[in-house]
Design brief:
about 350 residues; 2 domains; single chain; two-stranded antiparallel sheet; mainly alpha
Length: about 350
């Protein structure tokens, strides 16, 4: 028999880095389209800014090392990081903050540690947390789908808002943007309002996770299931993370339904589903052993609920993922599967 390789393995791996990243991009497409439909052109503009910044930053770092640029760019990992970061930030975030965050993700978090395969933290979430801590007002003000339904912004108006800070005549920044459902709920609960009162507002009419917010989550859920089917990721982290988050929400809502929202709200409002399938499953910064992945995912789900409920930040996916990124090596070390035959008695 003739083999392509003189030595083993003689089979060709079906999934290389480029193929995996391309499938991640394809899985993100339904959610991105849904977000553009609900939140306007700002999502698409942020994606363009983030991708251009990611490519330039990656090429700059590779050039400094004296290595060929195209092989590094062709693996599409920088594009995936840019997409994840761009859809996590508000649609009308000033352009320079998007550039700052994306450059930080690629240069500091990814390339300074050695490039793909070496970064200890998820680059997209690291950049998100950097901007959230540095510019909390901008990072927690999302354009409202309700406002866009009544007064949709054109592409040029969106460009003017992002690059010039200008809003259409007759509108103000306060009327155009507002708190997310998670943030709105947290502020209302801090003012001693009850869940039944809060859900009478226009943001909650007939919806599980807040007006317009659950549909991107559904789209990302479908994309995540497709990735599991294509074996891009395994089920361990998404199932354990979302299952733990739901169980915490269910338990506390049963104890006091007027103070704690039901578990489904936590799944479909904010970035829980996006984080479970596309961020927490990062093969570089996540756990790799089967038991370790279950512990890793469950810990992220528990931290999300704890920070959302009693912490200072309403959507805690980024913080929870980064905290568990630090714990992934020790979790893997403690959950190594036994080698076949190890410990068996002769």
């Amino acid at each position: 028999m003739l083999f392509r390789n003189i030595t083993s393995p003689h089979t060709i791996r079906p999934n290389d880095v480029t193929t995996i990243m391309l499938r991640v991009i394809l899985a993100l497409v339904p959610g991105i389209i849904t977000m553009i439909w609900l939140f306007g052109w700002g999502i698409l503009i942020n994606i363009a800014i983030a991708i251009v910044t990611a490519i330039i930053s990656e090429a700059f770092c590779i050039k400094l090392r004296g290595r060929p640029i195209m092989p590094a760019l062709s693996d599409l990992s920088a594009i995936v990081t840019a997409l994840l970061f761009a859809i996590a930030i508000p649609p009308l975030l000033p352009w320079w903050q998007t550039v700052f965050g994306m450059a930080f993700a690629i240069i500091i978090i990814k390339q300074m540690y050695g490039g793909i395969g070496y970064n200890p933290f998820n680059p997209a979430m690291s950049a998100y947390v950097l901007l959230l801590i540095s510019y909390p007002a901008d990072m927690t003000s999302w354009v409202s789908p309700i406002v866009l339904n009544e007064n949709p912004l054109s592409f040029m108006q969106t460009l003017a808002a992002i690059f010039g800070g200008l809003v259409p005549a007759g509108m103000t920044w306060d009327s155009l943007s507002g708190a997310t459902p998670l943030n709105s709920l947290k502020m209302a609960l801090n003012q001693n309002q009850m869940i039944s009162e809060i859900r009478t507002g226009p943001l909650w009419q007939g919806m599980i996770g807040g007006y317009g917010w659950e549909w991107p989550s559904v789209a990302f859920l479908l994309g995540g299931i497709w990735m599991i089917y294509k074996r891009v990721i395994t089920w361990h982290i998404p199932v354990s993370m979302l299952g733990t988050l739901f169980l915490f929400g269910l338990l506390f809502s049963l104890l006091d339904p007027e103070a704690y929202p039901f578990g489904l709200f936590h799944l479909f409002s904010g970035g829980a589903i996006l984080g479970a399938f596309f961020i927490a499953t990062d093969p570089v910064s996540a756990c790799t052993t089967p038991r370790g992945r279950l512990i890793y995912g469950a810990s992220i789900g528990a931290l999300i609920y704890i920070i959302r409920t009693w912490g200072g930040y309403p959507d805690a996916v980024a913080f929870a993922v980064l905290l568990l990124n630090m714990s992934a090596p020790i979790i893997d070390h403690l959950t190594q599967p036994k080698v076949y035959g190890h410990g068996s008695k002769k």
